């Protein structure tokens, strides 16, 4: 059973470009979470999605960031007009159901570098 | 004051040593306490999970939670070189948003053969 898959593993963008990060949850998981890990910081919750629904986006920056989890295909975290401060590791996690009793399994992360 | 404080280390110990890792927190609503292990360039993986106060043991690992002091610990006995990793504490509150994990910065541990 494959774990959480994220691609690309490394992404380099110039300022002003768009970044698209993909996350395929574990088989059978319908709950997806995105976290961001800035240099020298802990992981910070960004957004929680279920299929076709954004449940909680309280950790998402108000501008330039969006997330989706369509009925078919991976979850996408999209960052428009990237700036140097967006350089970070972005981790996706998935769970079978929601709630802290249900372990969130993390992917290997996408390391975004903005030049 | 950050919600979760964790000494980033680095911490270097000889093989076989007992390791103590700690976090403090300020949010009294936290009820769920977790320790994750993260190897370099990998995602975090859950090691231990504890609800409210008390101790939990799993093999060489023991997690302790002291809610009165807002202090949690992870002890590793007979540490091995394969334990070398970054250890992250994470917490969640009770109620509807308990999926939202709040992490410490992580402590980098190296166990030397």
| Large-scale geometry of chain A | globular
What is the overall number of helices of chain B? 0
Question: Largest chain-chain contact?
Answer: A-B, 27 and 25 residues
Overall shape of chain B: it is globular
- Give the helix/strand class of chain B: mainly beta
Structural class of chain A: mainly beta
Describe this structure as you would to a colleague.
The complex is a heterodimer of chains A (115) and B (113). By secondary structure, chain A is mainly beta. Helices cover 0% and strands 49% of the residues of chain A. In chain A, the strands form two sheets. In chain A, strands 2, 4, 5, 6, 9, 10 and 11 form a seven-stranded mixed sheet that branches. Chain A has a four-stranded antiparallel sheet with strand order 1-3-8-7, with no helix packed on it. Chain A is globular and about 40 Å long. The termini of chain A are far apart. Chain B has 113 residues and is an all-beta fold. In chain B, 0% of the residues lie in helices and 57% in strands. Chain B contains no helices and eleven strands. The termini of chain B are far apart. The A-B interface holds A 4, 31, 33, 35, 40-45, 48, 56, 58-59, 91, 93, 95, 98-100, 103-109 and B 4, 6, 8, 32, 36, 41-46, 49, 88, 90, 92, 97-106.
